[in-house]
Amino acid sequence: MLFNSLEFLLIFLPVTFFGFLVAARRNRFFALGWLVCASLFFYGWWNPVYVWLIVGSMVVNYCLGWILCRARSVYVLSVGVGLNLATLGYYKYIGLFSETLGQLAGAQMGFQDVVLPLAISFFTFQQISYLVDAYNGKVDVSNWVEYALFVTFFPQLIAGPIVRHSEIMPQFLKGQLGPREKDIAIGVSVFAVGLFKKVLIADTMATYASPVFGIAAEGVEVSFLDSWSGVLAYSLQIYFDFSGYSDMAIGLGRLFGFRLPINFFSPYKSLNIIEFWQRWHITLSRFLKEYLYYPLGGNQFGHARQFANVMIVMLLGGLWHGAGWSFLLWGGMHGMFIIINHVWQNLARTMDWKLGRWSRLCGVLSFSLTFFCITVAWVLFRADNLDTAMNIYRGMAGLDGRFILPVTYENLLSPIVSSMGLTFVRFDAIQYFEGMREAGYLAIVLFLALFLPNTQEWMSRWRACLEPIEIPNETFTRMLLWRPSMVHLLVVVTILTVAVSQMFRPTEFLYFQF
Amino acid sequence: MKRRNIFKSYNAVLGLVFIVFGVFGVSSVIVMIRSDGLVPIEKIVAEQQRGPILFNSPLSSMYKHKLALHKERAAKIVAIGSSRSHQFRAYPFSESFTNLGGVFGPLRYSEGFVRDLIEVHKPEIIIWAVDYKDFFQAPGGIPLRTEDEKNIFSPLGLVVTGAFDWKTYWKLMFDGEVIENFPIKLMGLSAKATGSGYDYDGAMYHFGQHYNFLGKDDIYYTNSRESLYQGIVENSSQGDRVNTVQPWALAVFKSILDYAASQDVIIIPVLVPDSPVVMEILDEKPDIFRRGLDELRRVLPHYSPYFTDFVDPRQYGSSECEFLDPYHGGEVTYLRIVLGLSDVPGSPLKSYVRRDLIGRLTKDYEDDVFITEGKIGSQFKSAKRTRFSPMCKNK
Q1: What is the DSSP string of A208-268?
Q2: Could you tell me if the ipTM is greater than 0.85?
Q3: pTM for the complete prediction?
């Protein structure tokens, strides 16, 4: 079930919410149990067969965690982490492994059809973090229902945030369970913004991006403008898709009276790639840093070892996003960017560079370069395979005579083109780029991403998420911040209504199957 | 206390909004039920064979509907293609015939349908209504919808996205029907809303248009000659790529023909007609307006010995008055095409066509869109002189 489906919004959510309200007044166990049942129903809606998998995974991890809380055994921890990774490996990577081996050896291993169960990457990582925290004595034994809800709580189940046991458990155990009026108002408002981002912005961007990647996958030579517009549209699609989802998750959590950790914080505003990863999928970055990068040694053993660790983490992070060589390359590309970023920062420190009056210009250049790198890397993330990605890259570079401009601009531009001696520029029908209309949409959406406060900043006075958010200083931004007023109610009702009216278009969350 | 009241009011309004959403949601479920959205397609197809019933629904996958029809009827001859194949009907054939048209979308996705239909039941002959514009497209496009729309909120979605108007929606919800005293039983949302739908043989009847029961995206003939001319000019000025037969499309075309041949099924590719006015416009600047079409006419015969060209209705006596719109010939036009197909030397259809009947009907209904005879046609006698084209000179 998707958050942006009417069956979720009009049936599942009201039933679950009112059931929880009633149960919370009577008994904590029933209330939490109700949410577990609802969350399993939510999970099983996709394919009921895999409910056993998440339940089985929870039972095994709960038992191992119980043992680890009592006896700090590295063997038990190893078995637990190993079992989780083996399960993830089987469902997520056996197909890739089998296919690759088949291509190399010319034989079929028969695992190509293994279906990737929904959310397995998320609940596996969440439970690994639980086991490690239990081993380190950071968590206490919880009862079975509380643990089950920690794993399955539907707002965070299918696409994060990857929640720590210590972040959510105190909220399950607090005195008065159930939302207060404030929680409901904040929760619905944040959810509405997320829904709007997903349905109105991300899905619209998809209509520009998907056809371009579609024809590239067909082997059609994609033109310069088509490829750039498609890639830029995809960059904005995935941005608002994940941003919208993260908002909806936090809003839904808050609707039930729980605060979830922030997972997305205007990553395209980053001035370097390291900052990008501190803003994009924050809980995944945190997991990789604390449970992989630090155990590998982090930056404790010199630059060479640090860079190797960064590369390992990013390659695995890439593979976590999808079982495909293009995801591995995407991770590798980001790993390379981060290493270059570190080298640059080290150099700046060593040389003691002072930017002075150039700081603003350098900021613009840093932002532009970062955004360019992220956008270029998305091609690998989105393309079905490496051939498709190369096709798009060749289009973006204008190779193979693909520097084609719309024939409608021929009269306007051909004198300029010929006077500049740009003989490689052709005028013809390009396939998908819609000219100024599309460019206008892309510019507006990019403006929204770069210059408006994000949802958590918008809510900063009322802290919708787990972490406190700094209230912006700018007067204009402060004026926009949410408060429980009629003006903001009108805004929320309007965007909610518009979003719901647009929920009939075909859609799927990009982060849905990771 | 004051703040608490603010939140109370805030939440009360939000609650009200959700209640309104809920009311619309319930209405959608009612419309879904009242427009047969929950009836299995196999049951509808079986009921249609007992008929007369016109069925059409955007909630049903055309792919599934036509395959179910094909399975039920197991005909010797079938027609495939886009909406431009809709007017091929069973009665001009002396052997069993089913119209599986309307399924085809982008060429590359249509190949799967041909494979599936042969797997369901192997016909002897497939008449493929070829739309020449399919050969000039970029590859890609939207895949064919192979599953029904089972979402109970889909009727609401259709009205919100403009496929139907709210008046139709509420009428369906409260009365269960939109068109009062329609002489034929209608099943499915589109049929109930517009009065047009598929007959037992899979062919389409557009009697709803005759009665002006139109959905928003009707095929009513609204184009003037000037607007048609302008559209063709704009299309032609988009550069080489959109006026050239695309190699990928030819490859798909060949692949479909090869597959059918490997299954001992004959495919007769037929270039289906544009209206006479469109052809006149194309003739004005053949090097520009007709470039792609002429290229295709040169190329396709090399792919199939059965290829036939019926693009120009003036060549076989079909007038502007016989057209539903600039790119959709009416029932009489397609009767002429069936006759023409059987006349082609060596045609596999030669002994499968009721020539006398077609001869009489094309004479009696010259310049008409509809044949007002037969189980369904006879219910619409007044539709005989219906004219859709504003450019029909013989009104």
Answers
A1: HHHHHHHHHHTT----HHHHHHHHHHHHHHHHHHHHHHHHHHHHHHHHTT-PPPP----GG
A2: no
A3: 0.83
